[in-house]
Specification:
Length: about 450
């Protein structure tokens, strides 16, 4: 019995030890397998992360004159980081293709791709790679331009009259701001020759312009020919140009007459109420009185049915009504009136007023034109009807401030032209809708 009991106990102990050792061996095996799997998946994840965090920018350089790719053509990549700017350069292969690879997918890094052909720069700015868009294709169609001036028309030519700068002598000078809505009807960028240089647009200025300040990118003035020049080709579609200068009243009038370089649809003259400046041209109708940007203007508009041909000298002289304007010319008397004009012009020069004026007039003009874009339901139309007049005014100011902000960022080259045009068009269309709603509310 003793022996049998001892054997039984011994067998029990050995059985328990065996099971324990077996369990220990299984646990150790499972642990090792998990460790191996973890190392494998960690390495795989690291490899995947390393791959996912890199992207590329590629494209093709094509000569549109010959309709064939350009081989061995240099293309430059500029990498804009927070504190540094780096550049890389490559050349196209026999098929005109280029590629910049292993670029970090960092939202704080911006890329610019550029090339030069026949002294013309081609640039795509503000490109960003991310995990959502790790690859970008940027093609360059170069050498393809039209020089057919019949494809260019000035849709609106607006003049805003205001006081001279505060530090300017009171010698009869005024500030003139010009806003031009110009359209390239061709599918190709427009480029013309001015002297020995290639330019996108050349617009004639009146004689006697002082201190011209462009408010659109790539504008400059040639003092020898008295022309304002757009240094880059004019892209297809509609563009807006703006600038301002100082001009003098002589012999009782402000003569802004000039010869037109392109067919022009309509002229507008904005005069702050009470100034006594009146367009002389018979094609201007009676003014309408409107409040824009919290200031009251008399708006003179040319006949919408009359087109002004290129090569024709247009009478844009403004007579000074000394009886109405005596003691009220800009910068010479009434501080309240001078302040009113100054605010209006300041708004114009920051871009907001240009937009309000151009697109308000554009909306009125397009009611007589067959434009498929204008016949569609305008954005914001529904919810604007639910707002009271004060809320609509707040929306209007917010739209103007946003457009002004866009103009400033584009002028500082902080956003690409493609993004700028898309956002600006969207906001100006919404602004037009709002102005129409306000106008209907005022007439109700």
């Amino acid at each position: 019995m003793y022996t049998n009991e001892s054997d039984m106990r011994l067998r029990t102990v050995l059985t328990k030890r065996g099971k324990s050792q077996c369990s220990s061996i299984i646990v150790r095996c499972v642990s090792r397998l998990l460790a191996i799997a973890l190392i494998f998946f960690t390495a795989l994840s690291a490899l995947h992360a390393q791959t996912a965090e890199l992207g590329d920018i590629q494209g093709t350089v094509i000569d549109r004159k010959l309709e064939k790719p350009i081989a061995s053509h240099p293309v430059t990549l500029t990498i804009h980081k927070t504190d540094t700017v780096e550049t890389q350069e490559t050349t196209t292969d026999e098929n005109g293709n280029y590629r910049f690879a292993e670029l970090p997918l960092d939202p704080s890094v911006y890329y610019t791709v550029s090339t030069v052909h026949e002294d013309t720069d081609y640039t795509e700015k503000d490109l960003v790679l991310s995990t959502w868009v790790p690859n970008l294709k940027i093609d360059f169609d170069i050498g393809a331009f039209t020089d057919d001036t019949a494809q260019i028309r000035v849709k609106t030519y607006s003049f805003i009259i205001g006081p001279p700068p505060a530090d300017h002598a009171p010698d009869g000078a005024v500030t003139v701001a010009e806003a031009i809505g110009i359209e390239n009807l061709s599918t190709l960028p427009f480029r013309t020759t001015h002297g020995t240089q290639k330019v996108g647009v050349n617009l004639t200025l009146p004689r006697g312009v002082e201190g011209l300040q462009p408010h659109s990118p790539n504008l400059t003035m040639d003092p020898n020919t008295n022309q304002i020049l757009l240094k880059t080709p004019l892209p297809p579609g509609e563009s807006h140009l703006g600038y301002e200068y100082i001009f003098h009243i002589e012999k009782g009038r402000l003569d802004l007459s000039r010869r037109l370089n392109f067919n022009t649809n309509q002229f507008f003259v904005f005069v702050p109420e009470g100034i006594g400046i009146v367009p002389r041209g018979k094609f201007f109708g009676a003014p309408r009185r409107e409040q824009i940007h919290n200031n009251v203007y008399l708006i003179y508009e040319s006949d919408a049915n009359q087109t002004f041909a290129a090569g024709k000298k247009i009478d844009l002289a403004l007579n000074i009504n000394m009886g109405a304007a005596r003691g009220a010319l800009p910068g010479q008397t009434s501080n309240n009136l001078g302040q009113l004009i100054f605010i209006a012009v300041a708004a114009a020069l920051t871009g907001g007023f240009f937009v309000a004026a151009l697109f308000k007039l554009r909306a009125a003009r397009n009611t007589t034109e067959s434009d498929t874009d204008d016949t569609s339901t305008p954005p914001d139309a529904g919810w604007l009807l639910k707002l009271n007049p004060d809320d609509r005014e707040h929306v209007r100011v917010a739209r103007l401030e946003f457009i002004t902000h866009l103009d400033d960022k584009y002028e500082r080259q902080e956003i690409s032209e493609r993004v700028y045009k898309r956002l600006r068009r969207e906001q100006t269309e919404r602004l037009t809708t709002l102005l129409e709603q306000q106008k209907r509310g005022n007439n109700a």
